[in-house]
Design goal:
Layout lengths: L5 H17 L2 H5 L24 H12 L2 H14 L3 H25 L8 H7 L1 H35 L9 H18 L1 H31 L3 E2 L14 E2 L3 H4 L9 H14 L16 H10 L1 H19 L16 H8 L5 H33 L4 H4 L11 H11 L2 H6 L1 H33 L14 H18 L4 H24 L10
Antiparallel strand pairs: 1-2
Length: 520
């Protein structure tokens, strides 16, 4: 994996910072090169503060890798495929790493871009740029609506473990959480970075604690009695910690090949937002030094935080033990492990960390949605929307953040009206499918970049791009195809295709033959 030497990194970063501070008429003349953001290579319009340090970016990258799905959804994943879920996590993680290498190469080439989405417009044209820019922002808002609901639900569940019923207060709790995170985003980008640093630390601590607990339990041949695990509607049987919990009855597809294939989409969505670190580049100090390190360490993070955690769980809980409750839900494997180890307040501990994970996701979504709307507003021809394309005195896109937060604030209203809520579920699931289109377009844009005059042979080059890029595109097509396998995902797959045809077709027709910067 090619990286530039330290001396060239220093020179490149000095050049970037000098351009950002002083401007360059030559670069301004190149500002018609066409991209979603309307900026060219080495653009001088980056008004945002480079307040994120290497420490912030590394932990933001970790936080983007670890979502709530690992803490709550891994039980369902294990139930689908047994120990072979480890293979699925590794394969999907490898493909997501290749996606990040493509994004990394593009952002390394032009670190002043506020989002990697810009390169779709630059290399695929204005129509696809418009489609990708607005689709991704809508996806972020819909994910934010889901995450704020999750934060409220987990908060209520956390206090329920202590006997307090806060269900009536959930809408107010959601509003307070969102207001707090919005304020953090408005203060300064450094405040956001510090918040994400500590959110990530809490998640890392729990996972490391789980792995250490499993190792110790295996070494001492720990036996545990039958116990009523929080979130399980039946008594969990007695057992012991050992390797045999993994290897007994081991097969690649214990529940059939359809279940095995469906596990890929489940794991894929647990990696969603891994690309978030690609949005922080324009606000990162020394981006050409920090970005390659953050991306290259993704594989190690996957091995430790996903594969390591799954192995630890199955060392203690036999994989055959993961059965759904009567309502189809699954208990958190983290709660099971710590309760088996004798930690009575395991449920409260795990749900505290899950609140942290959901808050981290919401914080990142608010940050990313604000930057994307800011970018779209900057290049808009609409006078109203143009007003959002400015930064505050703290050098953050305050108006775009506030507007994005207001859309996310609709969540309590949507949840209170059953008719709207059911329609929202379909729309939100369609957004999950739509993000696959964004990933595919990003990979195609990367291919076009490699064939263009912009290509930097001594940049952060994706290895064997003709093979790895094509392989990644086929993988995303495969993931989309798996959405048709189950009734609960088939609707979102169809809705996603309808969105692609209608909005994608509209975007291509509207911007046919127009400059890429005229997108809104």
């Amino acid at each position: 994996m090619t990286q530039m030497d330290e001396s060239r990194n220093a020179a490149a970063n000095a050049d970037i910072n000098a351009k950002a501070a002083n401007g360059s008429s030559a670069n301004a003349a190149n500002d018609t090169s066409g991209n979603v953001g309307g900026g060219s290579v080495g653009e001088t319009t980056n008004q945002l503060e480079r307040g994120l340090s290497n420490r912030h970016v590394q932990f933001i990258a970790i936080g983007g890798t670890i979502g709530t799905g690992l803490f709550l959804g891994s039980g369902k994943s294990i139930a689908f495929t047994g120990p072979s879920i480890i293979l699925v996590y590794i394969l999907v993680g490898l493909m997501m790493f290749l996606l990040m290498r493509a994004i990394g190469e593009l952002m390394y080439h032009d670190p002043d871009q506020h989002t990697f989405i810009n390169f779709i417009g630059r290399y695929l044209g204005s129509g696809w740029g418009h489609f990708a820019g607005w689709t991704y922002w809508i996806v972020l808002i819909l994910m934010g609506l889901s995450e704020i609901t999750a934060v409220g639900t987990y908060f209520v569940t956390f206090f329920d473990t202590f006997g307090f019923d806060l269900r009536a207060w959930q809408p107010l709790i959601e509003v307070c959480f969102l207001a707090l995170l919005a304020i953090i985003n408005l203060i300064a980008v450094k405040a956001f970075g510090e918040t994400e640093f500590w959110f990530s630390m809490i998640k890392i601590t729990l996972i490391v604690g789980l792995i250490v607990t499993a190792v110790v339990m295996v070494i001492v041949n720990f036996h545990y009695p039958a116990v009523q695990v929080h979130g399980v509607d039946h008594i969990s049987p007695a057992g012991h910690a050992g390797l045999d919990n993994i290897f007994n009855g081991l097969t690649l597809a214990p529940n059939g090949w359809v279940a095995f294939l469906m596990a890929f989409q489940m794991v894929f969505f647990s990696y969603e937002m891994i690309e978030f670190v690609g949005v922080t580049v324009s606000e990162t100090k020394n981006p050409r030094k920090v970005l390659p390190k953050a991306i290259n360490e993704i594989i190690m993070r996957i091995l430790i935080f996903y594969v390591g955690a799954l192995i630890a769980i199955m060392l203690i809980v036999p994989w055959q033990s993961f059965k759904p409750n009567k309502d189809g839900s699954f208990a958190s494997p983290f709660i099971m492990v710590f309760q088996y180890a004798g930690l009575k307040w395991a449920s409260a501990l795990v749900f505290f960390v899950v609140i942290t994970a959901a808050s981290s996701a919401l914080n990142s979504l608010l940050y990313s949605a604000g930057r994307h709307l800011f970018q779209l507003a900057e290049v808009s021809t609409s006078p109203t929307l143009k007003k959002l394309g400015v930064v505050s005195k703290n050098r953050v896109p305050a108006r775009a953040i506030v507007v994005s937060a207001c859309f996310i604030l609709l969540s309590p209203v949507i949840n209170a009206i059953p008719q709207i809520s059911s329609a929202f579920v379909l729309f939100a699931s369609a957004s999950s499918a739509a993000i696959i289109f964004i990933y595919i377009l990003t990979m195609v844009a990367h291919q076009c970049y490699r064939r263009s005059a912009d290509f930097e042979a001594d940049g952060f080059v994706m290895p064997a791009y003709k093979l790895t890029n094509t392989l990644t595109i086929f993988f995303f097509v495969f993931i989309y195809a798996t959405l048709f396998l189950a009734p609960d995902t088939r609707g979102s797959a169809i809705a996603g295709l309808v969105w692609l045809v209608l909005f994608g077709g509209y975007s291509l027709i509207r911007y046919r033959g127009k400059k890429a910067e005229l997108l809104v």
